[in-house]
Design goal:
single chain, alpha+beta, Rossmann fold, YmcC-like fold, nine-stranded antiparallel sheet, six-stranded mixed sheet, 21 strands, 31% helix, 27% strand
């Protein structure tokens, strides 16, 4: 028995904060630091114990750790009882008071720094006056960890931070034997236990005022707002591994029923998280739309490339046949080539007609949904002569059954599928945005399928016939004069995608008040010089505060069936700018022909 006492006298089970010679002088046994435990009820209660002043094997840092941890928990609204250099009687009294209050608390927490041992699979914390002569004395001289867990009561959240994972030099003296480090505790839902190192391992002493584990834990508690405890303990784990070069790794046991935050996320954090989620969703949708557009473009390019290659092969075969068999063979080869080309052109034509029809069906469904959604909000739009104006192009005239019949005044389509018209819009502040109109399909006598891409993001696609239209775009100019018009009639200008107007704050309706040709003019833009017809247009926006207007001047190339420049002035219904303030200028910056690529 004396041998057991001598082993205990030389006990060097350093807590994670035990650097000899560092820290302040130890007070008398049983000293209590900080504010005494409150008598009033608290939703968060904690016991913090730091034992340094052992008769043999004294530790320097547990007092520092416990004092700093008590202050950190108080700042987090915990009612803390701090005990430094506690005897067995002190610990019994502290946990008796703690147990009496635990059932009425929502969160209970325990932090211990000091000596600890494992005997027979059980974990014990060591008071400063412990002196066991036999393993039967453990229950009288020490505090069993399982008993402490029971003292935590029926609190919904139970947190244990155990900084006493050192070798047990008493193992050879106890008949059941002891093991290196601490034993793995019994895990239970609602209780989260954090050890300074994994069970069966020992913790490093470290350097400085605090142990690696306590230093990392205190740093994590400096600003815990919005950090869930599991995430916080993972950060502690990473910090300790880094500080000890991988020699020590904190370990956690058990789990909580739900998330726990020492401080919940601030409202601004939640808003930022929500905004980030929205931005991520927008980016994902943009990515998918871009991929879809790229696939469609690649398919179209592949079809055109295949047609070219087939024609080139046919010509090569014809030349070869001419050399081998004379004019008759050439004639036969050319005939086969022409027949093959005709079949491929017919297949290409049918593919474009199907693409056009699919776009028409989609466009019709979109327009009908917009009209249904805004029926209660918007009034019928009117043209300059007071007659009701259509909200979109006539879909009935573009049915496949009628597409086979030439139009009364047929208009040749300018360009080819794959062509791109790039515009640059500049607002009053000098900010520029790029808008690309990409031709996806052309079916003579039926229409032109075109999609609009803003900043690399596909926005919408529309089918245009040879009638005048305005298409809604997400720029300050709001409306863009659409392509594929070479007529004279401007009395029935229709607004395509009218919901774009209604997305402006306070706007309840929009209509074309007037649109007329005011002359001919040759202008130069970044894409080149063009002979244009100069048009003037007024769009009236109905708002809760009365009507507001946008006056647009449009330079339109009849030869190319494209708008070359558009200048928009006016006043936004809720803007501070004076009337006739220039809003935005849009110019044709480049034209890319698929045939030239």
């Amino acid at each position: 028995m004396r041998r057991i006492s001598s082993f205990l006298g030389s006990l060097l089970l350093c807590a994670a904060l035990s650097i000899p010679g560092v820290g302040t002088a130890a007070p008398a046994s049983g000293e209590t630091a900080g504010v005494p435990v409150k008598s009033v009820k608290s939703d968060r209660i904690a016991v913090v114990i730091g034992n340094s002043r052992y008769p043999s094997g004294a530790l320097a840092n547990p007092r520092n750790d416990a004092s700093a941890m008590a202050e950190a928990l108080r700042r987090l609204d915990f009612d803390v009882e701090l005990k430094l250099d506690a005897t067995k009687a002190d610990m019994d009294a502290v946990f008796r008071r703690f147990s009496a209050r635990a059932d009425g608390a929502a969160v209970t927490a325990i932090f211990y720094a000091g000596h600890g041992i494992q005997v027979g699979g059980g974990n014990y914390i060591v008071p400063i006056d412990a002196n066991p002569q036999h393993e039967r004395d453990l229950k009288r001289d020490m505090i069993k960890m399982d008993d402490i867990l029971e003292d935590m009561g029926a609190a919904r959240v139970k947190l244990v931070f155990f900084d006493a994972c050192r070798d047990n030099p008493l193992a050879r003296s106890f008949s059941r034997g002891g093991s290196r480090g601490m034993a793995a505790p019994v895990e239970a839902t609602g209780t989260l236990i954090s050890f300074a190192t994994k069970h069966g391992n020992t913790a490093a002493d470290g350097e400085g005022k605090h142990s690696p584990y306590a230093a990392a834990l205190l740093a994590a508690l400096e600003n815990p707002a919005g950090v869930e405890i599991e995430q916080m303990l993972r950060r502690v784990q990473q910090s300790v591994k880094q500080a000890t070069s991988g020699q020590q790794e904190p370990w956690r046991y058990g789990s909580l029923d739900g998330d726990f935050y020492f401080r919940p996320p601030a409202p601004t954090d939640a808003t930022a998280a929500s905004k980030a989620a929205v931005e991520q969703a927008v980016q994902e949708a943009t990515r998918r739309a871009g991929e879809q557009a790229a696939r469609e473009k690649a398919e179209l390019q592949q079809s055109i490339k295949a047609l070219r290659e087939a024609s080139e092969r046919a010509v090569a075969e014809a030349v070869k046949a001419q050399k081998l068999a004379g004019e008759s063979a050439v004639a036969e080869a050319l005939k086969r080539s022409n027949e093959q080309a005709a079949r491929e052109r017919d297949a290409m034509q049918k593919s474009m007609e199907k693409m056009l029809q699919d776009a028409l069906d989609k466009q019709k469904a979109t327009l009908e949904a917009e009209r249904a959604a805004s029926a209660a909000k918007t009034a019928p739009m009117a043209t300059g002569d007071g007659k009701a104006a259509p909200q979109a192009i006539s879909l009935a005239s573009l049915r496949p059954a009628e597409a086979a019949r030439p139009a009364a005044s047929p208009v040749s389509m300018i360009g080819a599928a794959g062509d791109e018209w790039e515009y640059v819009a500049t607002d009053i502040y000098g900010k520029q945005q790029k808008l690309v109109a990409r031709v996806k399909a052309i079916v003579p006598g039926a229409g032109l399928l075109e999609e609009f891409v803003l900043g690399g993001r596909p926005l919408a696609e529309w089918v245009f016939d040879n009638k005048p239209h305005l298409v809604g775009i997400p720029l300050d100019s709001v409306l863009l004069f659409a392509p594929n018009w070479a007529g004279e009639d401007l009395d029935s200008v229709a607004i395509v995608n009218p919901s774009r107007c209604l997305q402006i704050q306070y706007v309840t309706s929009c209509r074309v008040s007037k649109m007329k040709v005011v002359g001919e003019e040759r202008i130069t833009v970044p894409a080149g010089s063009y002979d244009t017809r100069k048009l003037e247009m007024t769009v009236v926006f109905g708002t809760d505060y009365g009507d507001a207007t946008l006056d647009a001047t449009i330079w339109y190339s009849k030869q190319h069936q494209r708008m070359v420049r558009q200048s928009v002035k006016g006043r936004h219904p809720v803007a501070e700018a004076p009337v006739n303030q220039l809003y935005e200028t849009m110019e044709l910056a480049a034209y890319r022909s698929w045939a030239a690529r």
